[in-house]
Design brief:
151 residues; Cyt_c-like_dom_sf; heme binding
Length: 151
Amino acid sequence: MNKTVLAILAFFVLGGAVVYWNIAQQPQQVGHSMVPPDTSDLESGAPIVEVSLPAELSDQAQMGKRAYEAKCAECHGKNAAGQNGVAPPLVHKIYEPNHHSDMAFVMAAKNGVRAHHWNFGNMPPVEGLTDGDVKLIARYVRELQRENGIN
C-alpha cells in the first residue's frame, strides 16, 4: 500500500473513533423528558398546580370553559389544575401544544387514554361530548396554558 491510501484509511479510522467517542459520552435518555411533579406532600384531591387566570377569555374559550366545567372539572379540577390522586393538571408542560396537540384532547375524550405520563390510572372515554365541544375545551385549556407560560 502506498502512503496516500494509508493516510486516507487512518483518517477514516480516527474519524470513526471520534464519532463513536462522542456518542458514547452523551447520556442516553429513556422516554420523554417531561417529568410530573412530586405530589406526595399534597392532600388527596388538592390542586396539583397553581393556575393563573387570563384577564379575559376569547368567546370560544368561554364556551370551552362551560363544557370543561360540565364534563372535565370533576376529575381534572377547577381551571385544569388537576386533583391529587384523581387526575393530572392540563395546565402543565406535559400538555403543551407541541407534545399533545388539540387532536390528542379530542382522541382522549372519544377513546379514553392509557396512563403514560402520570400514575392516576387510565382515563375512560367521556360521554356526551362532540369533537367540536372538545376543540372548544382545548381552546380554553390553551388560553390557560399561555397565561401560565406554557406555549
